[in-house]
Specification:
single chain, alpha/beta, TIM Barrel, two-stranded antiparallel sheet
């Protein structure tokens, strides 16, 4: 691996081998997602606790200050929407030259294994890796299952992650599942946990992230369960403790409640 590739990866994955990545790319197929109508305002208070931002070029240019030092993972696939026929029918929408112009530390795209567009999205990944390797830019593959959520088990996700790694992804983002260690152990590159749909309580988030970390994940790429939370800063600070400090669920809950109480006192004053 060349120096440039190693350097870019080191911006995203910290010296302890862990990472707290925050995606705000949801609008590329969902439009103005709840709590992400104004991305710049949403992320302002969360950036100090994030290790990298997963974002499209449009939102990056329009909503993120060039003075920010947070590493950027550029979303480069798309071409479908929630009202379209099939979310899996994606293509590459952003060039590697654009990623270089935007000083991205990595690029990311989705693959839809088991869908009608499996071959297309895996070919997209292969072509993207070919281009990215020329410039020393790591590729993160997102193993999306779209509407086929019943496939979210260790056997299926393990298949997705291994194929993405075989094609050349340097990092793979996938959903947490039972027996998550089987997914990680079958993937020769680092695995980060996706947040998936918004859950009901912060405890649920802390529990699946903690379990995933214990089973070999290096971190998370988690958005909605942070910025759609009624208490986003307490949530991300608690998650950061699990990821970077090997914290327990109980410790995370204590941090969450402590920071939440501090916020309440500030508002009251």
């Amino acid at each position: 691996m060349d120096w440039g590739m190693k350097n870019r990866l080191s911006r995203i994955i910290k010296p302890n081998g862990r990472c707290m990545l925050m995606p705000i790319d949801h609008g590329y197929f969902q439009g103005p997602t709840s709590k992400l109508e104004k991305p710049g305002e949403t992320i302002k208070q969360l950036l100090p606790y994030s290790d990298a931002l997963f974002v499209t070029r449009g939102v990056l240019r329009a909503c993120v200050s060039p003075a920010e030092t947070i590493p950027i993972i550029l979303r480069v696939s798309g071409g479908t929407s929630m009202v379209g026929k099939d979310l899996a029918n994606e293509t590459i929408t952003t060039s590697i030259e654009e990623a270089v112009r935007l000083n991205a530390s990595a690029v990311g795209m989705s693959v839809f294994i088991g869908s009608d567009y499996e071959h297309q999205t895996l070919s997209n990944l292969g072509n993207l890796v070919n281009e990215a390797e020329r410039y020393g830019i790591p590729v993160m593959a997102v193993t999306a299952v779209g509407r086929e959520l019943e496939k979210r088990d260790a056997r299926y996700l393990g298949l997705c992650c291994r194929i993405a790694a075989e094609i050349g992804a340097k990092v793979v983002k996938t959903y947490w599942c039972e027996d998550f260690d089987k997914v990680v152990n079958g993937c020769p590159v680092p695995v980060v946990i996706a947040g998936g749909p918004k859950v009901d309580t912060e405890r649920e988030v802390f529990e699946f992230v903690h379990d995933g970390m214990q089973r070999g994940a290096i971190g998370v790429n988690l958005g909605r369960n942070i910025w759609q939370s009624p208490h986003p800063v307490p949530t991300i600070r608690a998650l950061r403790h699990i990821i970077h400090e090997n914290g327990t669920v109980a410790q995370a809950l204590n941090i969450f409640n402590s920071v939440k109480n501090e916020e309440r006192k500030t508002i009251e004053v």
